[in-house]
Amino acid sequence: MLTKINNTPNFKSAQVNILATSDNHGNVHSMPLLMETIKNNQKDIFIKADEKSTLNIFAIDGDFFINPSKKGYLTKPQLTNGDIQHQFLKRVIRYVNEQAGKNSNFDTVFNIGNHDLDGGDKFLYKIMKNTDMKTLITNVDIKNSPGIQKVMAKTNNVVKSIVYEIPDNKNPDMLHKILFLGVTIPSMQFYNPGLLKEMTVYDNCVKKDADLTEENLTNTIKVLKEEIKAFKKENPKGAVVLLSHTGGSISKMILNKVPKIDIVLNGHDHKNLTTIKGKSNINSLGKDNQIIKSLNLKFDDNGDLESTDINTFYSKTTVRDNLPTNPIQIFLEESFSKDMKPLISLKDISGQKTELDYGEIIRYQNSYLANFLTSAVKSSLSKICKNPDIIVGIQSSIIRGRLKDGSNNLDIMKVFDGGSEDLSNVHIGTVSGSELAGLIFENIKDNLKAPKRHTIIQWSDIQVDRTLISDILSGKSNKNAFDAIKIRNGETNDYEPLDVDKKYTIAIGEKYLLKDDIIWPSKIRNRFKPLNKTYDQLFRSYLASDDINYQLKVTQKTLEQRIL
Fold it and tell me: Cα 347 from chain centroid?
């Protein structure tokens, strides 16, 4: 895709090449494919990269990391997700620099995403200090962030904003200026409650994305205005680029209040969109190494930003033939040989090789993958708790990877990788049928507001009629929540109406019980005890059990419709 923001013809006096990516989510196994895509399109991405009047920027708009505290690698069991992902980050930056030209005017800018803080702020401080990139912290309250202050005292690579100078190609006395800013979504208390010990984000709150308004961004907008005002005072013709890990709707709110931003590189919403808003444009950058975007900004003879060309490049299977020689692929194969060997056998009911696919629908619809995982975790829990009737609930946002015949350990590592290991402890407790109906109804009500952001809880033995709940809420049906929820009879295996007075034992993740933005967690949390095991650990226990031994089968229970 090529977008011309301005078609005024002129001679280029300076330009900026920006290669942008976001929401990689620690998918190290697909990074070689993305790097090969960059190599194959190098001439279109880094145009005239070695000229003095060209600046080359690699922009990473958050969530390069995910769940950094988690362990489970076979080749290097002592290392965590964060350790491994950091090794790849350093190599990826080096590789992109080589594509731009080692002697080119090149730099990497990094914006913080919510998943980058899954391991708390201390993990990110280590990354900031030990990586050759500029970390942008525009909406971090530095005065109230002692950890950030300590890091900034040791390195010049952590900045509130950064101004780059590009020499004019004709006038030796002229420098073109471009300001880079970085904003992360302020809902840190929602995404990683209690994990930020020495870092304060402006406007930090427990609100979900869809509930944030411009009023919730007051200090974020204020600091952006201050940074841009100071920059424009010295450089009235300078360009402004914002890395915004907030999602498209919040990026639009920011532009409504801060119109002097030329380019927004937008992460967090996982979309592939370019939206024109006045003289600005918002470029959403997709997810999981599926795409990259390149932007070529041209300044004219008068120092004005003349035009911006935008290209989208897809990581396609057509480049796989060249992967064996890609240095990132070589590093992957040499360093993680045990993790790349096929481990799982997965057969369907007829005995054929099959796949349980992962996709966005898992957040708001029935999913065979979710059915399989909730049942598998229940199998492990039933043995530990000696309770065959325990019901497992899993927030679908923590599921991030598929299962297929031939899946390796890297694939298994991704299955439960969407939440912080520090908040993933499974808790067990009892609720009445009435309480269970209340928390399910509340979850579905939230999910209907923003299906991809307010994720549904998938259950092992509960069938939920999401459509009926929607009709109840809209007034199309006069039924109630109990009519929309059924529970499995352990003896007949059939779904039956919920018994409002019966006590049900359920297992749910710690992060859900910590939530204060919804009603039910605070009502029931004191009745739940930690198991000191995560969903990932319980699933791995299931896979390695003597009766399974990584030989997985799709059953009729897997193919149930649990979300209607």
Answer: 30
Count of residues in the chain: 564
213 and 85 both lie in a single domain? yes
Order of strands across the sheet with 158-159?
3-4, 305-314, 291-299, 14-21, 54-61, 106-111, 134-136, 158-159
- Same domain membership, residue 529 and residue 435: yes
CATH number at residue 357: 3.90.780.10
Q: What's the domain range around 246?
A: 3-331
On whether residue 564 sits in a domain, the answer given is no
The CATH code of the domain that includes 247 is 3.60.21.10
> In the block, which residue shows the tokens 């090789």?
353
389 with 454, same domain? yes
Give how many domains the chain has, as a whole number.
2
Q: What is the pLDDT of residue 9?
A: 43
Please check whether residue 423 lies inside any domain of the structure: yes
Question: What are phi and psi for residue 294, nearest 5 degrees?
Answer: -120, 140
DSSP-assigned states of every residue in 219-287: HHHHHHHHHHHHHHHH-TT-EEEEEEET-HHHHHHHHHH-TT--EEEEESS----EEEETTEEEEE--S
List, for residues 122-141, the tens digit of each pLDDT value: 999 999 999 999 999 999 99
Q: What is the chain's mean pLDDT, rounded?
A: 92
- Single-letter residue type at 522: S
What would the pLDDT profile of 191-202 be if each residue is shown by its tens digit? 888 899 999 999
DSSP string, 325-378: G-HHHHHHHHH-TGGGS---EEE-TTS-B-EE---GGGGTS--HHHHHHHHHHH
CA distances from 394 to 35, 66, 461, 521 (A): 34, 18, 12, 14
Backbone CA torsion sign across 339, 340, 341, 346:
positive
Q: Are residues 106 and 250 in the same domain?
A: yes
Spatial CB neighbours of 230, under 8 Å, sequence gap ≥ 6: none
Decide if 563 is inside a domain.
no
